[in-house]
């Protein structure tokens, strides 16, 4: 009996393994032609599914409204939405099958070089880059695979009232000045000068996005590919991480980073219990909402650039938010393409969220007006070597856009992990150059 | 320590002798109707019953494990439709990076906590097996934490450990100063292991209680008649009788300590010195797209757990308890 049992299960195992191997190698992207925006809306038919991380919009009916408006232009297309709370995790796993919606936001974990495997080309880079910003973030081999709806500038969200109370009215122009201002806030107000959002982690990933701001260099990201020691003194990452380190080391942040709470942080800054947080411009609206809900003045929430000036100007890096793409396996590519086109150009979603629309020539949102007035420059990073930089980043297990990396800096800065600022940077440099060597 | 993975096979129930074993049978045994069928035709009948559980077992346990083992020999990134066979490269990589194994120090905290947990569970099980007042209520209260979803437990204790949270407030009444329970790198693992004890003590207790209750009452009575104290009853009657269950709990505790995941992942995400081997593996697979390497790490963890279990069986063989 036992022998037959073993034999039977063994047979089942072998069979299933074989089945797996069969399905594993079969799938793969067909290099189908580009999907142009349909010229005659009345001829486009089908039902498309849009995967979105904006579960809030699905719940409050915003998506339904968009679908209804879209249906006025494209009467024969039905749009359905799937809101995913763990967008990155869920979609990444679904991308192993063919069933990942018709329109989706490209998950951050998909390496650029694999875009053609999963997404249909939306047009040539030469064409689309005339109309849209950030197309180079999704360009492989001269074709664009994703179009962003919005871009976000990076900077510090701050409570103007608290900063004023501490006697600071002008934006600090050097990291040292910034630290001094935080110290003034600690001394003169009851507020926590800086809030890390260490526990939730993902808000911290924005520290990696500061790359490019100190040097005001659009090629900052590309240069990482050839820089042996990106954390050497004077380099962008050194300046950025030093600031984070010094804030925490100087006890200018909350006392227990391990119990921070993102949702709660909005109310904290809205009511002036927290003065500053490093985030993207997308966060301003949410913080203003929180201030309103708490009965405070939403205009107290402001946005300031990274405290370094180059030739007398602040620089803020503008990065695309999620880019929308068409599933390469979609049966209704034309309808899907039509949706992306309509959503980015006509839906008004970017304006409603006070975000920078990726459509060229769109006016800047109101919350970035002070940036413009101060002469701050908005720079777009070039993406000539993004794929290589990504690979080095993954191979080195540093994860410039992962939460572990800034979290570790916070740990060291507050004495919770061994080492000091120099040893952390040396360690990062070593990992980086070693990974460069292996990929060489 | 962690939730048992072999839930079905863990309670080794000791059946009491049937109550009517000594009495004369009132009914004669029924006679089989009809001629006996050829046994060959029905050989598959038990397999039919086993079909559903086996299908589930193969689909959700063996197949993923087989896949995992096969991924561990490739450089698959978790996404790409293609991957290359790299042989043992992942394993070489793993074993040439000792820092990857440093996280096992964290497991020692959980191992120590399991010892506390098993002792506490034994104590409560023994006490509640005697005629204690409100014993069912206490059983319920002690078992309750195990019924709560691990994610909920994590969130509850996040508030519990917050600066100025419940724990600090209570300690303050007794004059103890506030601590950064999760923020202090020397305290964080103790705090997390404490949560684990709170969560799993009830489960161990129920297992022990079940085993204790299957000890024939005559033994207790005899011991009581001989004037044995409660401690002596525990030492010489209860403990030897439930030894297999204790051994099993220890094995589960050790393997659980090596593969702690839920509580630290939810409460700290592995930050601040609380990273365990499983959290590290997850990060390798999903943050750095090294699914091949992560699979190798998982295989290694599986082998370590098997090795530890085997060692335990060799060093402390399960003696048959003779009872007559």
Structure explained in plain terms:
The complex is a heterodimer of chains A (440) and B (324). With 440 residues, chain A is α+β, with helices and mostly antiparallel strands. Chain A has two domains: 41-149 and 321-372, D-Maltodextrin-Binding Protein, domain 2 (3-Layer(aba) Sandwich), CATH 3.40.190; 153-318 and 385-439, Periplasmic binding protein-like II (D-Maltodextrin-Binding Protein, domain 2), CATH 3.40.190.10. Chain A is 41% helix and 16% strand. In chain A, helix 8 (175-188) packs parallel to helix 10 (236-249). Residues 1-31 of chain A have low confidence and may be disordered. Residues 1-26 of chain B have low confidence and may be disordered. Chain B is built from 13 helices and no strands. Chain B has helices at residues 45-71, 89-95, 104-129, 135-147, 150-161, 166-173, 188-213, 217-225, 230-241, 243-258, 262-267, 277-286, 291-315. With 324 residues, chain B is mainly alpha-helical. Chain A binds chain B through residues 8-9, 12-13, 16-17, 20, 24-25, 27-29, 89, 92, 95-96, 109-111, 114, 117, 198-199, 201, 255-259, 394, 397, 399, 402-404, 407-408, 411, 414, 416-417, and chain B through 47, 54, 58, 62-63, 66-67, 70, 77-82, 158, 161-163, 165, 180, 182-185, 188, 268-273, 283-284, 286-290. Chain A: Residues 1-21 form the signal peptide. Chain A: Pfam families: SBP_bac_1 (PF01547).
């Amino acid at each position: 009996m036992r022998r037959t049992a073993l034999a039977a299960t063994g047979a089942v195992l072998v069979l299933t393994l074989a089945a797996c191997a069969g399905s594993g190698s079969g799938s793969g992207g067909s290099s189908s032609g580009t999907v142009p925006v349909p010229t005659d809306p009345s001829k486009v038919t089908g039902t498309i599914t849009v995967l979105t991380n904006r579960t809030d919009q699905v719940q409050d009916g915003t998506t339904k409204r968009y679908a209804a408006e879209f249906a006025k232009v494209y009467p024969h297309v039905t749009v359905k939405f799937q809101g995913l709370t763990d967008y990155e995790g869920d979609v990444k796993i679904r991308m192993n099958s063919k069933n990942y919606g018709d329109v989706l936001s490209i998950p951050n974990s998909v390496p650029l070089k694999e875009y053609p495997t999963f997404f249909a080309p939306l047009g040539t880079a030469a064409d689309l880059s005339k109309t849209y910003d950030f197309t180079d973030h999704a360009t492989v081999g001269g074709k664009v695979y994703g179009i962003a709806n919005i871009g976000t500038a990076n900077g510090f969200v701050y409570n103007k009232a608290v900063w004023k109370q501490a006697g600071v009215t002008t934006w600090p122009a050097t990291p040292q000045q910034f630290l001094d201002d935080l110290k003034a806030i600690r001394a003169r107000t009851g507020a926590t000068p800086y809030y890390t959002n260490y526990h939730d982690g993902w808000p911290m990933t924005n520290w990696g996005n500061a790359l490019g701001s100190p040097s005001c260099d659009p090629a900052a990201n590309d240069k990482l590919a050839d820089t042996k020691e990106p954390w050497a003194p004077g380099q962008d990452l050194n300046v950025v991480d030093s600031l984070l380190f010094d804030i925490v080391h100087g006890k200018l942040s909350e006392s227990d980073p391990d119990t921070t709470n993102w949702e709660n942080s909005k109310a904290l800054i809205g009511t002036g219990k927290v003065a500053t947080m490093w985030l993207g411009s997308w966060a301003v609206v949410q913080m203003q909402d929180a201030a309103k809900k708490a009965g405070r003045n939403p205009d107290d929430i402001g946005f300031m650039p990274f405290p370094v000036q180059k030739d007398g100007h602040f620089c803020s890096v503008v990065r695309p938010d999620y880019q929308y793409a068409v599933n390469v396996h979609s049966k209704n590519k034309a309808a899907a393409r039509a949706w992306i086109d309509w959503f980015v150009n006509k839906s008004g979603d970017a304006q409603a969220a006070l975000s920078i629309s990726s459509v060229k020539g769109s006016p800047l949102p109101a919350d970035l007006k002070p940036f413009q007035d101060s002469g701050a420059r908005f720079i777009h990073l070039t993406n000539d070597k993004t794929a290589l930089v990504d690979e080095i980043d993954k191979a080195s297990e540093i994860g410039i856009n992962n939460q572990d990396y800034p979290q570790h800096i916070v740990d060291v800065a507050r004495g919770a992990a061994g080492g000091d600022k120099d040893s952390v940077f040396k360690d990062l440099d070593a990992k980086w150059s070693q990974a460069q060597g292996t990929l060489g | 320590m962690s939730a048992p993975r072999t839930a079905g096979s863990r309670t080794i129930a000791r059946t009491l002798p049937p109550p009517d074993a000594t009495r004369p049978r009132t009914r004669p045994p029924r006679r089989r109707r009809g001629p006996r069928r050829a046994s060959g035709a029905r050989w598959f009948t038990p397999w039919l019953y086993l079909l559903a559980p086996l299908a589930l077992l193969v689909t959700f346990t063996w197949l993923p494990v087989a896949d995992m083992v096969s991924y561990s020999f490739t450089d698959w990134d978790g996404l790409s439709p293609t991957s290359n066979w790299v042989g043992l490269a992942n394993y070489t990589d793993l074993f040439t990076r000792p820092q990857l194994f440093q996280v096992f120090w964290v497991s020692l905290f959980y191992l120590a906590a399991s010892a506390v947990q098993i002792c506490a569970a034994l104590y409560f099980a023994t006490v509640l097996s005697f005629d204690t007042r409100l014993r069912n209520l206490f059983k319920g209260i002690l078992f309750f934490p195990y019924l709560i979803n691990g994610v909920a437990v994590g969130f509850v204790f996040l508030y519990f450990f917050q600066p100025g949270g419940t724990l600090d407030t209570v300690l303050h009444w007794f004059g103890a100063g506030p601590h950064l329970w999760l923020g202090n790198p020397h305290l964080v693992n103790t705090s997390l292991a404490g949560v684990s004890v709170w969560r799993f003590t009830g489960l161990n207790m129920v297992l022990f209680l079940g085993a204790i209750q299957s000890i024939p009452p005559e033994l207790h009575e005899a011991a009581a008649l001989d004037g044995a104290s409660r401690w002596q009853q525990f030492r010489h009657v209860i403990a030897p009788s439930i030894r297999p269950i204790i051994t099993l709990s220890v094995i589960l505790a050790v393997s659980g300590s090596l593969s702690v995941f839920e509580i630290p992942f939810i409460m700290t995400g592995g930050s601040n010195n609380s990273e365990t081997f499983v959290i590290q593996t997850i990060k390798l697979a999903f943050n750095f797209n090294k699914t091949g390497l992560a699979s190798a790490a998982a295989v290694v963890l599986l082998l370590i757990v098997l090795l530890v279990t085997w060692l335990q069986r060799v060093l402390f063989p399960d003696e048959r308890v003779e009872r007559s």
